[in-house]
Write a structure and sequence with these properties.
single chain; alpha/beta; Rossmann fold; 2 domains; 12 strands; 29% helix; 21% strand; binds NADP nicotinamide-adenine-dinucleotide phosphate; oxidoreductase
C-alpha cells in the first residue's frame, strides 16, 4: 500500500489486522499496555504522544498524511486527541468504529454509566464475572460481604480471599466460556459493549444461562472525516485512495 504516510492508532485485534497490510513507511502506534508485535513490515512506536498537542507535533514532524484510529471504542481519550491533533495538523482523520452489540429478545441488560452505577446494579448479586478490564482491581477492598468477584483482565494479579483474578487475553471461544461459566456459577456478567467477535461468546453463554448483564455504556467518540464499521471496508478505502 503506497499512499501518504499513515499513523495507525491501535491496541486492538482489528488494528493489528490493518497494521499487517501497511508498508514500511507507515507507523503503527500502541499505548504500550499489551503485546507489541515484532513481525510487522510497518514501523511500530510505543507510548503516549503527550496529549493532542504532542500528537499534532508528531504528525507534523513525521510528515504523517492520514491518521487512522482503530483504537478500542472505550479508549475515548486517544480518539479525542487524534481528532483534535488531525484538525490542528490539517490531515484527514479516519476511524474504525466497531458497531456495538445489540441485546436480543429475552436478554436482561442493565445499562450503567460509571463505577458507582455499576456497583449499585451489582448489589443484588453474589458472584459477578467482571470482563471490562483492570478497573475492578482498584476496588478489591470494597467488595460487599455477600459477594465473591471473578475479574478477568489482561493483568496478572494475586487472588484475594474475596476475589479470583483470571489473567487472560481474548479471543474467547463459546466452548471455553461455557466451561468457565459452568465451573464458577456466576450469577451476573459485567461487560463493556466492545462489539466484534473476539469477546462476544460470554454474552451468548449469559443468554443460554438466563444471566443478567451489567453493561457499561459506550463513551462519546469524536466525528471522523470517514468512519468504517468493518476492517475490510477500511482497507478497501485505503486501496482506493492509493
Ligand atoms: P485512553 O484512555 O483513550 O488513552 C490514554 C492515553 O494513553 C492517551 O491519552 C495516550 O497518551 C495513550 N494512548 C492510548 N492509545 C494509544 C495509542 N494507540 N498510541 C499511543 N498512545 C496511546 O486509552 P485506554 O482506554 O487507556 O486504552 C489504551 C490502549 O489500549 C488503547 O490503544 C486502546 O486501543 C487499547 N485498549 C483499550 C481497551 C479499553 O477498554 N479501554 C480495551 C482494549 C484495548 P498521550 O495523551 O500521552 O498521547
Amino acid at each position: 500500500m503506497k499512499m501518504k504516510r499513515i499513523l495507525l492508532l491501535g491496541g486492538t485485534g482489528d488494528a493489528l489486522r490493518i497494521a499487517r497490510q501497511l508498508g514500511a513507511e507507515h507507523v503503527y502506534s500502541l499505548a504500550g499496555l499489551g503485546k507489541v508485535p515484532d513481525d510487522l513490515a510497518c514501523s511500530v512506536r510505543v507510548g503516549g504522544f503527550g496529549g493532542s498537542e504532542g500528537m499534532a507535533r508528531y504528525i507534523e514532524g513525521e510528515d504523517i498524511g492520514l491518521v487512522l484510529d482503530a483504537t478500542h471504542p472505550y479508549a475515548a481519550q486517544i480518539s479525542a486527541n487524534a481528532a483534535q491533533a488531525s484538525r490542528a495538523a490539517r490531515v484527514p482523520y479516519w476511524a474504525l468504529r466497531r458497531p456495538a452489540w445489540q441485546p436480543q429478545d429475552g436478554d436482561d441488560w442493565r445499562m450503567v454509566g460509571d463505577w458507582t452505577e455499576l456497583t449499585d446494579a451489582l448489589a443484588p448479586f453474589r458472584k459477578p464475572l467482571f470482563t471490562l478490564g483492570r478497573e475492578p482491581l482498584a476496588h478489591l477492598d470494597e467488595i460487599p460481604p455477600h459477594q465473591f468477584w471473578t475479574v478477568r483482565c489482561l493483568d496478572a494479579h494475586e487472588d484475594t480471599p474475596r476475589a479470583r483474578i483470571l489473567a487472560a487475553r481474548g479471543p474467547f471461544t463459546l466452548e471455553g466460556e461455557r466451561a468457565l461459566f459452568a465451573l464458577q456459577a456466576f450469577d451476573v456478567v459485567v461487560s463493556k459493549n466492545s462489539g466484534g467477535n473476539a469477546t462476544e461468546a460470554k454474552l451468548e453463554v449469559a443468554r443460554e444461562r438466563g444471566l443478567p448483564v451489567v453493561m457499561l455504556r459506550r463513551p462519546e467518540l469524536p466525528a471522523a472525516d470517514r468512519e468504517f464499521e468493518r476492517v475490510a471496508d477500511l482497507l478497501e478505502a485505503l486501496q482506493a485512495a492509493d
